[in-house]
Structure formats: structure tokens, C-alpha cells
Write a structure and sequence with these properties.
- Two copies of one chain form a homodimer.
- Helix content of chain A is 25%, strand content 26%.
- Chain A is built from nine helices and 15 strands.
- Chain A has helices at residues 49-53, 128-141, 159-168, 180-188, 203-210, 224-231, 259-264, 281-293, 310-318, and strands at 3-9, 22-28, 37-45, 74-81, 91-94, 101-104, 110-111, 148-152, 172-177, 194-197, 215-220, 234-242, 268-271, 301-305, 325-329.
- In chain A, the strands form three sheets. In chain A, strands 3, 4, 5, 6, 7, 14 and 15 form a seven-stranded mixed β-sheet that branches. In chain A, strands 10-9-8-11-12-13 form a six-stranded parallel β-sheet, sandwiched between helices.
- At the A-B interface, helix 7 and strand 13 of A face helix 7 and strand 13 of B.
- Strand 13 of chain A pairs antiparallel with strand 13 (268-271) of chain B, so a sheet runs across the interface.
Chain lengths: 331, 331
């Protein structure tokens, strides 16, 4: 019998996530029934949204159940198939969770081509994070050439794509990231016009200097003081794509003082979850895939080795320790 | 020579507005030149937005200049005309400010018919406040029958129209107002399904009881804690029309703690100024005028007597002392 390792949610976090919130278990692959596919996962994606799923509060999705495999995006290769659409050896993206293998009925499974695009990129720039950036930028901010777009967590899997797509659309792209190294990468490698190190302690002044014409669009991943400071720089009819609020996921208060700006500047803001806009994925993935395949969209990955490393890597992600897309290599 | 009284902005408020921020002056009507109209104002409209104009901060409009007649909507009758479109005796709505008379070139002047609609209503339900309600409800909240719409300052010139229009569209309309008398009026006279007295001290619990199915649309006039409490009750894909933040106009902090709700519930919010959407006024005023003329849209007015009473009436408006539309009767 084939066995594999998986990580289940052992307990819900009280404040910050700790390694004890997860438990490593060994599972056995049962014989496939008609319509099922067995996938050996090569990479697991770690994403901030998982933190929200760990809580038992009303949100856009049911909470992650205690004792069940942690939710998560995966890429891998079909190891066995009783499904007419999938054959052994197919490269597939799926939602098989924090596990070395997974059996599924084809739901949320998608064949991909790793000839010109690395398999891992289907969890990043050409996957959910890339689509998140694409959706928020093109469907909510919808920037015109010459406008200024600011994105927080700019070196991350989503933020890095937001700024590069904005540049391709003729915008001024300004990032916010933690630390000089990340900021240098965002400007020098990704080609943003500027990047502000929020850890340097001069956020408001640095933001003002980096956005001389104000801000027309905010792609928000962080929330809290960083977000509030950006709101104060918004131009009339500015648009805000609210994608994440990672600074508050552990329960810290996340106060917005600049609400008046929404009125005086007639701002619009919309929170979104990219999985609710599947109808736009083909269009977005086509652009993203083309840009990655031709080297026009750059990305960086932080890769943890082996499933057992996933909890610490996830905790690091929530603290901003990763640099670019956080992955776990399973094979 | 004809003389008249007017009120000018004497000084900008430091915190709350005080009577000394205004100064009564006497002006003389100069002989009309070609294209000019002289209007004797019958009513002056007092509106919360004027508080923002009194400040010298970046906003959607230039600040009110010191020493100039306070800005404001008026209805009156043409007393003299050298304008081909206006004749003596015409009833007109204009923006002639806090003054007993005014000369203008026809800009922002509009002939109205007081046969079936009282002249004063053109400053309320069939004027800018009514259009504000109509725009925010129909263009931003766009509620479906069966949805729940909550509006703050529900007995006021704008809020009262919001709830009645929502009811006409098959929604559950819930108001928030200050005091038992206003709340009784909102339910018994205006026909809202419920109205919460925020002064009663049980806002969160009362709101929960009044919105058993959550909230799909917020029409926000007040801001601060009232707004924050409503946000916490929003359903997925809820819409917020941000019209005013009167609780913060004197500079009090206006903190929003429930920003996370925007993300988890995928809320959208838009701040707006109805004067920027003039193209929709004919459609909106047609509906509002028809409803007022047939008695289907009810309103109440608080009328101060004489121009000299305007400052105190305005200060009362900012503190919620008015009941319905605040007017100043000039003739």
C-alpha cells in the first residue's frame, strides 16, 4: 500500500500561529475508484489567506476543519488515473492541500504545460497569486497610463505582479515592502519606479516623496497603518482593490482613521476573492503565462524543503520573512 | 436702491462651529446688466456639506472664501430679469447662498413648478438632498427586493428619502436616528421597518435585532462608531454608499475597526457628491417629484425664521437638533 505524509490542522491559533497548530500524519492511498486521479505533489503553495481559514469565524469560506488536511494549492504529476481526462504523467495544478499526495475527482484540477513555464510558477505568477494581482489591477483599479498605483507587500507573490502589470500599462508603480533588500529587488529587478521600506520609520514622508502626483490606485495586501497612510495620499476618484490585510490576521486591531478621505476624494474600494471570478481566469492566465514565458514578468521564490518544513515556512510568511512566492518542495 | 441682508463667513471654525464664524452684512443691488436675474429668496437650505466647505483643507470643492456670502441652495421668485429665459414671477431654485436676494447669470438656476409640490421641497426631497438619496441608493447600493438597507440620520432630509425609496423597491428599510421621537417618526410616518435610537446605548444589539438577515446596503451619513457597527453586520457583496460623515466634521477622530469585514464579505464602498452626476438628475427628480406630488414620499421640515437665525439653525443641524429638512424662511 502506498503511504504519504500530510499536515492537518491540530488546533486553531490563539493570536499568532505556532507549529503546534499543525500535526503531521501518515495516510494510505486507497485503491482508486472510477473517475479518481492520484497526484504526487511536487510543490505546495503557502498563502496568507490560509491564516483566515484557520479561524472559526464567519468569512468567505467555511473554516478549515480541525483534524483535516490543511487547504492549499499544489502542482504535481498524475501518478495514477481512472479519470478519462487525466493520464499518468500529466502535470496538474490542484487544491490537494498540505500533503505529499492526493486523490481527487478532477474538481479544481487543471492540466498545465511546464515546457516554457516552470511548474512552480503555476502556484505563483501564473496561478492564483498572479490572477489575484491581475483581477484587482485590471478589474478594480483599472488604471490609465500615467496614473500612480501603490501596492503593499510589493516583493511578494501578488504584489510583485501588480507592479509589473501596472508598469506594462504605462503607470507609475510604487511598492511598499519590509527591508532594504526587498525594496532594492522591487526597483532593480522588478522595475517598479520606487519602493518604500516601511520598516525605515518614515512611511508618510517616504510615500509622499514617491508619489508626487498622489495615488490613483491602491492594491492593498497588508492593512493597518500602511493602508491608512496610503489612503491619505489618494487623488479624486481613486480606486482601492482590497486583497488582503495580513497585518491583522493574528487579531491585532487594524484601525483606519482616514475614512473622511473616501468622501472628500470620492474613493471606491472593493474587497475581492479571486476564486469567485473564475470566468476571467482564462483571459488573465493567458496574459500572465505569455509574460512569464517571454521573461517579461519576473518573480522570485522562497522554497522550503519537505512537507515537515511547511509550518515554519507558513509562520515566516505571515511575518514577512519570505522573499517572493513561498513554496514547499515535496519531491 | 434695493438693499438686502446676507451672511458671510467671518472666520473658519476651530472645532465646533460658533455663531461668530458668521457675520451679517447689508448689500446693495446694482442695476442688472444684460443676462442677469435678480431673485428674492424665499427659503435657504442648510446642509451638512457646508461644514466641510468652511475649512481650508483639500476636498472636493474649493473652500468657502472668508468674507464671501456663505454657499447654499435657495428657492425664490424672480424679482427682475434681463435674462431671456427668466421672467418676473418665475419660481426658481438656485445657489444664491445665505442671502435674502441674489443676482446671477442663470448658472445653476432652474425653473420649478410649485403647483403640486411646495416650493421648499425643491430644497429637500425634490432637490439636492432627495437626489443625493436617489443617487446613492439606485446607483451605488442598487438594492434588490428583499434586501436590507440601513441608513443613518434616517429622519433627515437625505435619510428619510433613502428609506422610503428602499421600501418602494421592496427592501427592508432600517433607520438609525437620535432619540425616540425621531425613531417613532421614521417608522410610523415614513414607513421604515425599524429605526434604532443610537442614543439609547444598545446600538450593536439593537442593530442586530433590526437586521435579522444582516445588511446588504448601507447609506452612510454619519460615520464613526455608528458606521463601524453597521459594517460588522454586512452580508457578502454588500454595498456602501458613503454620503456623509457628519460625526467627524468638527475634527473628532473617526475610527473604523471593522476593515477586515470589507475583505471577508467582499464589500464595496464608494464616496460620492451628487453634484458630479448632473446627468442623472432629470431621471431622479422625475421619480422624486412624482412621489412627492402624489403624497407617496413624505418629509418633514424644520424652519428657522429669518436670515439672522441661520447660524444657530446650522449649528443645531450639525448637532442633530433639527427634525427633517432644515430650512431658513426668508420671506
Amino acid at each position: 500500500m502506498t503511504t504519504y505524509n500530510k499536515l492537518v490542522l491540530a488546533s486553531r491559533p490563539q493570536g499568532v500561529v505556532v507549529p503546534e497548530n499543525f500535526r503531521l500524519e501518515t495516510a494510505t492511498v486507497a485503491p482508486l475508484t472510477e473517475g479518481q486521479v492520484l497526484v504526487r505533489n511536487h510543490f505546495l503553495s503557502l498563502d496568507p489567506y490560509m491564516r483566515m481559514r484557520m479561524e472559526d469565524t464567519k468569512s468567505y469560506a467555511a473554516p478549515q476543519a480541525i483534524g483535516e488536511t490543511m487547504i492549499g494549492g499544489t502542482v504535481g504529476i498524475v501518478a495514477e488515473s481512472k479519470h478519462p481526462k487525466y493520464a499518468v504523467g500529466d502535470e496538474v495544478v490542484g487544491m490537494l492541500g498540505w500533503a505529499e499526495m492526493g486523490v481527487c475527482d478532477g474538481t479544481l484540477l487543471r492540466k498545465v504545460d511546464a515546457t516554457h513555464i516552470p511548474l512552480s510558477a503555476y502556484l505563483g505568477s501564473v496561478g492564483m497569486p498572479g490572477m489575484t494581482a491581475w483581477y484587482g489591477l485590471t478589474q478594480i483599479i483599472a488604471p490609465k497610463a500615467g496614473e500612480t498605483v501603490v501596492v503593499s507587500a510589493a516583493s511578494g507573490a501578488v504584489g510583485s505582479v501588480v507592479g509589473q502589470l501596472a508598469k506594462l500599462r504605462g503607470c507609475r508603480a510604487v511598492g511598499i515592502a519590509g527591508g532594504a533588500e526587498k525594496c532594492a529587488y522591487v526597483v532593480n529587478e522588478l522595475g517598479f519606479d520606487a519602493c518604500i521600506d516601511y520598516k525605515a520609520g518614515n512611511l508618510a514622508a517616504d510615500l509622499k516623496a514617491a508619489t508626487p502626483d498622489g495615488i490613483d490606485g491602491i492594491f492593498e495586501n497588508v492593512g493597518g497603518t500602511i493602508f491608512d497612510t496610503c489612503i491619505a495620499r489618494m487623488n479624486p476618484f481613486g480606486r482601492i482593490a482590497l486583497c488582503g490585510l495580513i497585518s491583522g490576521y493574528d487579531g491585532e486591531p487594524m484601525v483606519i482613521n482616514n475614512m473622511r478621505q473616501f468622501l472628500t476624494m470620492r474613493l471606491s474600494m472593493r474587497g475581492f476573492i479571486v476564486s469567485e471570478h473564475i470566468e476571467l481566469w482564462p483571459e488573465g492566465l493567458k496574459e500572465l503565462g505569455g509574460l512569464v514565458a517571454t521573461g517579461k514578468l519576473k518573480f522570485r521564490e522562497t522554497v522550503a524543503d519537505g512537507l515537515a518544513a511547511a509550518p515554519e515556512a507558513f509562520i515566516g510568511l505571515l511575518k514577512g520573512r519570505n522573499f517572493g512566492k513561498q513554496l514547499v518542495k515535496l519531491v
